[in-house]
Amino acid sequence: MAGKAGYELGEWSDSQIGKDFGKFLTKFVDESEFQIEEAMMSRWHKDEDSLGSYCFNKVGTRLEHFERFRKPIQNKLWFVGEHTHPKFNSYAHGAYETGLWAAQEVVESLKGGNEEF
Question: Which CATH topology does 63-111 take?
Answer without folding.
Answer: Arc Repressor Mutant, subunit A (1.10.10)
